[in-house]
Amino acid sequence: MYSEFLIPGDDEIFDTIGEWPEIQENGARVLTWHSDDGVLVLSYEAVTRSVRVLWSNNDGDSLMDVYREGATRLAFTSTSSTVGAQIDFSVGECAGVMEIDISPRVSVRDRLLFQ
């Protein structure tokens, strides 16, 4: 069964995390964060329901590169001490969530399990 990929509008993203997504030619949105931990790039595309997370250290070495289709919801959170994103997925008989802490330290937790 097809599920729509619910994503916040660019204005809502800016209001929540203080960053504007860069818009690629294919319509994908890209957000890039630089920190002491390195560089985290989150890209997402509503039509293909796809998400890519690239995390590299400050020397440019790739720490993580995840591409996944079947995204159903993207949400951002921001408090006085943290910024994060949560992406829900539903792929066939599997469902899961990817939680990304962007600030103060980068961390990624990903679970995709049978329903």
Structural commentary:
The chain has one domain (10-114). Helix content is 7%, strand content 58%. The protein contains one helix and nine strands. The protein has one helix at residues 10-17; strands at 22-23, 29-35, 38-45, 50-56, 62-69, 71-78, 83-91, 94-103, 107-114. The strands form two sheets. Strands 1-2-3-4-5 form a five-stranded antiparallel sheet, with no helix packed on it. A hairpin with a 5-residue loop joins strand 4 and strand 5. This is YD repeat-containing protein.
Strand order of the largest sheet: 1-2-3-4-5
Counted up, domains total: 1
Number of alpha- plus pi-helical segments: 1
Number of DSSP strand runs? 9
The N- to C-terminal Cα distance equals 14 Å
**Biggest β-sheet description:** 5 strands, antiparallel
Question: Which series of helices and strands comes N to C?
Answer: HEEEEEEEEE
Helix fraction, binned, reads under 10%
Shape: globular
Query: What integer is the average pLDDT?
Result: 95
Structural class: mainly beta
Radius of gyration: 14 Å
Unreliable stretches: none
Give the strand content: over 45%
